[in-house]
Amino acid sequence: MFYREAGDFKTSYVEDSQTFPIAFDRWRYYAVLAFAFLVVPFIINDYWANAILLPFLIYAIASIGLNILTGYCGQVSLGTGGFMAVGAYACYKLMTAFPDVNIFFIVIASGFITAGVGVLFGLPSLRIKGFYLAVATLAAQFFLVWLFNRVPWFYNYSASGQINAPERTVFGIEVTGPNTEAWATYLFCLVFTVLLAIIARNLTRGAQGREWMSIRDMDIAAEIIGVNPLRAKLTAFAVSSFYVGVAGALFFAVYLGAVEVGEVFGIQKSFIVLFMIIIGGLGSIFGSFAGAAFLVVLPVALKLVGVDLLGWPTDIVAHFQLVIIGLLIVVFLIAEPHGMAQLWRVAKEKLRLWPFPH
Amino acid sequence: MKKLFATTMLATMVAGPVMADLVFPSLSYRTGPYAAGGIPFADGYADYFTLLNERDGGIGGVEARVLECETGYNTEKGVECYESTKGEGSLVYQPLSTGITYQLIPKTTADGIPMHTMGYGRTSAANGKVFSHTFNYPGNYWNGASGAINYLLETNGGDISGKKIALVYHNSAYGKEPIRTLEELSAKHGFELSLIPVDHPGQEQKAQWLQIRRERPDNVLMWGWGVMNQVAVQEAANIRYPMENFIGIWWSGSENDVLPAGDAANGYKALTFHNVGSDFPVFDDIQKYVVDAGKAAGAGDQIGTVLYNRGMYAAMLAAEAAKTAQEIHGTADITPAMMRDGMEALEMTEAKMEALGLPNFGPAFSVSCENHGGPGLVGVTQWDAGAKQWSLISGYKPTDADVIGPLIEADSAAYAEEAGIEPGCS
């Protein structure tokens, strides 16, 4: 009844091609943004920020990044953890080498450095695809983690090989280090997430996104109609790695504060981001958010219900988490291979016709 | 339901001030590749507080409450656990993970909650002038490294120059901790040190032990944890490395680590900073008040194992620090800030341990603001595969303060500069 195109007249091409063509959708989007920017910062506490919202926002950036590469351009990557490590270590080296540069620009710069590394590891994608490419990116994952563990220059020769984020401020308010306020770290990450999501959305529905999708759907046909596969694949690797690098930098500097590369950016991280985009939906920006929210919130929710509400032993609950999440992944793959984004799409289609479906 | 809720609310409101309790969070890990070490420690930690509640009615008349949170040795879950428990008035954190410790050092300091990393974590936290809220008494990794070398000196008639010593270590912050000390000691005593890293989780060590087989070092030291220990002991047995020349750190010296290798593990040695076995009066009380009452944590099958004892020792030190804090501040219901003062003024004497039913269980020591690390006395235990038990073969001996002291100064000064801390005692 409310959710329909009828009566919403577009008088220019710009209006016609906007992200949310339906008025109801548009207002909902503005409402969510307003809530996130104007309400949440006032009600947030340490627990909500550090246990749920920060990981959600950061994983959302990482899964948008991987979605660009895997969902839009069809190149399977298992190197996400390694690329996040590049972002984190680039951020650390830049933070300690240039203490006066604003952390905002350092995070962006870390993204660009990761983009460079990503292009380097994307080169094999010109020759190999599918499973073989997955194995090549797996090599990147192990190589990068090994490198950051092996070469002391990356961790400034500290005795333990750990990197610690020093205190940095934005407009005089601390966003990294131990003395941060929950709302400040949240807003800092939120700005990045929203900016990057908007850019990703517009990249993927423009000419660049069409190139990527044509490579994904059939690379030979794409080449015949004039898409340069070299350019398309390498830009996908670059943009994707940029996103993943920014996520890694935020993960280290804002969320964790101290990082040990093998434990935090191991193969586990690559898989969890891959699960996020599979559950959320390949080739969808909304899917990246949905998948990230699902895999961040679900373990916490299960823990709250199991331990705090039912009073079960912590180890039983931890085992149940693995069982339930594994089961859900299988169920999703069978029942809805296109992920939560597809559910959302179907719901919107139904809403458009409601309440008169015929 | 509603009525029940209302009654509970009323009950908590009425009974609130009386039912105050002392919260001891336990960031445990009963799952994952390190669970074999995490379970007995968590059981021992919980059981000791249960014993205090059942036998003495708590600490100074106030019940102790153990808040368990599963981390799986994972830093992200550790953060979640810390945030979810700190609001409950948690007195002291013991994460039993060097990775989570690094994470929590700045956070606990900012929140004013003390953290006790007994025999793990950041070694230079022994300097209380810089690390105001972190304690690592009674011993740390650098004491361990020096203790191992001292033991080798002792068994070799005081001369180990020219000997080859290999360090097999978990390739993480934890495993890398002793390297700096061992390098200094190698320069001082003239032995040759070779470093052999093992990546997390350490199930695959064929290459490392092949290297040891080729190089034939006179001694092998190990900084391992979890499944890595069992694999290493098995691999050492496979290449027929003489077990009595193989020394593990205290985290590589529990029953779980040697039992899988069977008789081949006989003679394997490990360092320790507390006693082993269940031949102490306190275990009778645990049997009577905890096990027989059906209140044992976990499966209740770990009592008397090395890591159970260590968990119990950690709980005992925490309880004693809480008692000290209660004495200093004259109140039974202490806050984290008071707990910190209690830890800094903690004094463990032989008489105190005797009274607790733990005679000669650990070294006697006292903590001060300058020294959060205790005396760093290190003993050596050896595994007897026939009797299936560990025994203390070398008592607690002092370590090389000339080497460790300056290293602690340097590392803590680096941290102070990095974090902008003005060193000093308040």
Automatic annotation (TrEMBL), chain A:
GO terms for molecular function: branched-chain amino acid transmembrane transporter activity. Its main location: membrane. It is a multi-pass membrane protein. The chain crosses the membrane at residues 27-44, 50-69, 101-123, 130-148, 183-200, 236-259, 271-296, 316-335. GO terms for cellular component: plasma membrane. InterPro entries: ABC_transp_permease, LivM-like. It comes from the Bacteria. Keywords: Cell membrane, Membrane, Transmembrane, Transmembrane helix. It is found in: Cell membrane. This is ABC transporter permease. It comes from Pseudaestuariivita atlantica.
UniProtKB/TrEMBL annotation, chain B:
It comes from Pseudaestuariivita atlantica. Belongs to the leucine-binding protein family. This is ABC transporter permease. Pfam families: Peripla_BP_6 (PF13458). Coiled coil: none annotated. The keyword Coiled coil does not apply. InterPro entries: Leu-bd (IPR028081), Peripla_BP_I (IPR028082). Keywords: Signal.
